[in-house]
Design brief:
The chain has 423 residues and is an alpha/beta fold. The protein has helices spanning 8-17, 46-62, 66-69, 77-89, 102-116, 130-142, 147-150, 164-170, 193-202, 222-225, 295-311, 313-334, 360-369, 393-409, and strands at residues 27-28, 34-35, 44-45, 96-98, 121-125, 151-154, 175-181, 206-210, 229-232, 247-250, 339-340, 353-356, 372-373, 375-377, 381-384. The chain has 14 helices and 15 strands. Helix 1 (8-17) packs antiparallel against helix 14, helix 2 (46-62) packs antiparallel against helix 11 and helix 12 (313-334) packs parallel to helix 14.
Length: 423
């Protein structure tokens, strides 16, 4: 970064020139905090709040009639939202649906594709978010398969990243499914979705992805890449609120795969209310819905997607890359006590940056008490997620300046507990 300018004035100039800076006016930050935890929970946004309130008003005004008479009808929430999600994920409308939660979707999709596959092994990686392994182990046990034998873990060479070569080394002719995150939750590495999909297909396996840390911040092209299935949440970068509805993608070539967790909301529309005891799944991703859509957890996503579509996912990704690039540069320039655990190449970097420090837990709490909201991942990572929707370059500069002050003053020492906890 020979031409890097780490001054506050340069940060302000970058914000003045940034196309998306005006988006922040649509969000509210608690107190006067600098909010860098959008990869855990996105901020309250007026657009999401308005469509949530719209659903509440429809409940009051229409009662049960809102299922068919509301605008939009509650009955169609999953498919309507799926159509719009497809636009930011590089998918066809029928391939996406808003439904269930991330973990439930992992259960049903991994289970369904395990049943459809010839092999009996699932390949994951050692840096995964734990819930992915919990769900997959459960699905293996349900089939009488010992997870210790049939859950194959791709290893990391550096404790931070996973390469396509590591995935390929774990895959065999017994592999049924390769299931990876698009972005590693600790280091922020953006995995090569295309390459991993190719590895899976070359071995006759299905390729699935957990997009929780990329949807809304990274531009995807799921259909073209040939991804077989994917899951995600909408409360992180999509800013749809705590407990917001999850989502799933199923490639059209896999529409004949049977949902593992069948439920009446995934039944075909024409016979859904005939109350037959035989499940007849709807065509496409819609057939993977399970229970009745939670209207109040899905409604905010309509407003949240208004923001994404107005900005454009390509512009959002560009702004995100600029913010994380700037953050990495500031760490290099001002924080020699820290290291960057996130890949430096833009094409290998998601929406957050892992700053490593031996006392990361104490540092993260010191930052929070000084109005910089970050989070800690054991044993040594402070995660900073400059969400492109409401964070600017000057916010990043101020956060790093506060961290510099904490280290200069040894202010984090008072937060030492001897046993760090996740915040």
């Amino acid at each position: 970064m020979d031409d890097f300018d780490g001054s506050q004035s340069a940060a302000r100039m970058r914000d003045a020139e940034a196309a998306l800076t005006g988006l922040r006016e649509r969000f509210e930050t608690p107190g006067d905090a600098i909010y860098l935890d959008g990869n855990s929970l996105g901020l309250y946004g007026e657009d999401a709040a308005e469509t949530l309130q719209r659903a509440v008003d429809q409940w009051r005004d229409l009662g049960i009639e809102a299922w068919t008479e509301a605008d939009p009808p509650w009955f169609d929430y999953g498919e309507l939202l799926g159509d719009r999600l497809a636009g930011i994920l590089g998918a066809k409308p029928a391939e996406c649906v808003a439904a269930n939660s991330t973990t439930v979707n992992i259960h049903t999709l991994v289970g369904g594709f395990l049943d459809a596959a010839d092999g009996t092994e699932v390949v994951v990686n050692e840096l995964d978010f734990p819930t992915d392994h919990y769900a997959i182990r459960s699905q293996l046990r349900a089939r009488g398969l010992d997870p210790d034998d049939h859950l194959v873990v791709a290893e990391s060479e550096d404790g931070r990243t996973i390469t396509p070569d590591a995935v390929e080394a774990a895959v065999s002719e017994e592999t049924a499914v390769v299931f990876m995150p698009s972005v590693l939750y600790r280091s922020g590495q953006l995995l090569d979705v295309d390459a991993i999909t190719d590895v899976a297909h070359e071995h006759g396996a299905y390729a699935g992805f957990d997009l929780a840390h990329s949807v809304g911040a990274v531009d995807h092209d799921l259909h073209r890449a040939g991804v077989d299935f994917a899951v995600w949440c909408s409360y992180k970068y999509l800013n749809a609120g705590p407990g917001a509805v999850g989502g799933l993608f199923v490639h059209e070539e896999n529409f004949d795969v049977d949902p593992h967790l069948a439920g009446w909301w995934g039944n075909e529309d024409d016979t859904q209310f005939e109350m037959r005891h035989e499940f007849r799944p709807a065509e496409g991703a819609a057939g993977w819905q399970i229970g009745t859509v939670n209207v109040f957890s899905a409604a905010p996503l309509f407003g949240a997607l208004d923001v994404v579509e107005a900005a454009g996912i390509d512009e959002i990704r560009s702004h995100s890359v600029s913010l994380t690039w700037y953050l990495v540069g500031l760490v290099d320039e001002r924080l020699p006590e820290c290291s960057v655990g996130t890949p430096r190449e833009a094409e290998r970097r998601g929406g957050h940056v892992a700053i490593e420090h031996p006392e990361a837990g104490a540092v993260s709490r010191a930052l929070r008490d000084r109005g910089v909201v970050v989070d800690y991942r054991p044993p040594n990572v402070v995660r900073l997620a400059p969400s492109p929707y409401y964070v600017g370059h000057e916010d990043v500069w101020l956060a790093v300046d506060e961290l510099r002050a904490i280290l200069d003053e040894d202010a984090h020492e008072q937060y030492r507990t001897g046993e760090e906890t996740v915040t």
